[in-house]
Amino acid sequence: MSSRQLGGLVLPGLRAGDTPATTIPATSVSGLSAYHKVHFGIDEYGRPLQVELASRSLLAGGLSRSGKSGFISNGVGHMSQCTDARIILIDGKIVELILWKETADFFVGPDPVLANHVLFTLQEEMNRRYEWLTHRRRRKVVKGDGMDLITVWIDELSVFTTVYGTRDTQERFLSLLMDLVQRGPAAGIVVVAATQRPSAEIVPTRVRDVFSYRVAFRCSTQASSDIILGTGWADLGYDASKIPTNRPGVGYCLAEEGRPFRFRSVYLEDDEIDTLVARSLSIRGPQLAGAA
Ligand SMILES: Nc1ncnc2c1ncn2[C@@H]1O[C@H](COP(=O)(O)OP(=O)(O)O)[C@@H](O)[C@H]1O
Ligand SMILES: [Mg+2]
């Protein structure tokens, strides 16, 4: 399917007029659910770093080759084994997430118009889900509602906010992104985005601030580390510019509350990704993958 044939795009999940059953538990052949916590690595004490993605969006930042794409792959890997997950990949570099393409409902490369179209479609789906919730006097989608968790993985965010497209497409991308990050989690739509420098030009503060989870991989300066985690953490010792160069995948993770903690991300080699993709295809079947 060509990227331009997306007019008839129907994202899985709720469609207009659908009445999803309220109590269908998702069958998860692998034993994993998209609504389960996602294992991303281990902390300094060897405890697992497990993130509840179902209710929050995550922003990761760090220098080139600091481990951002590897981190994203771990999350996509989890979702690829779940029959109640939908995977949307938006990859400014194409090569980073391409190995997962067959598991995705959409794969968007550095094509700002297509990226905006996919985000807009997600926004419509989110609005339908909000209507569904409102009718039932509910405030959020939970596992067991029979609705897939839609996970949106954006690598090299800056490509869509500053590098490609016009000022208009970039602004549109940012406002769609902000709406999805803010209102998406309650509707079972979560965004995980990664960028080299989440400075104000690349990710305006108003957008950056709505991501509840922050992950800082190695940064060039204390100021960049603070941009990702929040002002003041570097002075307290949570400074990602102190992570050595030879430690890709080591970073600081901060949830909304609490303080950052240092962790090391799991790293999936290409052949391991191939195994997971093959397994995903056998569990979930091939997904509709639009490619830029
Ligand atoms: N958790 C990790 N453990 C070990 N090596 C890693 C880890 N994460 C990344 N690497 C190594 O670092 C390289 C760059 O990682 P990558 O995730 O592509 O960085 P980025 O997306 O930040 O540019 C990878 O090709 C891999 O060799
Ligand atoms: Mg990368």
TrEMBL record:
InterPro entries: FtsK/SpoIIIE/SftA (IPR050206), FtsK_dom (IPR002543), P-loop_NTPase (IPR027417). SUPFAM superfamilies: P-loop containing nucleoside triphosphate hydrolases. ATP binds at residues 62-69. Keywords: ATP-binding, Nucleotide-binding. Residues 46-226 form the FtsK domain. Signal peptide: none annotated. The keyword ATP-binding applies. GO terms for molecular function: ATP binding; DNA binding. This is S-DNA-T family DNA segregation ATPase FtsK/SpoIIIE.
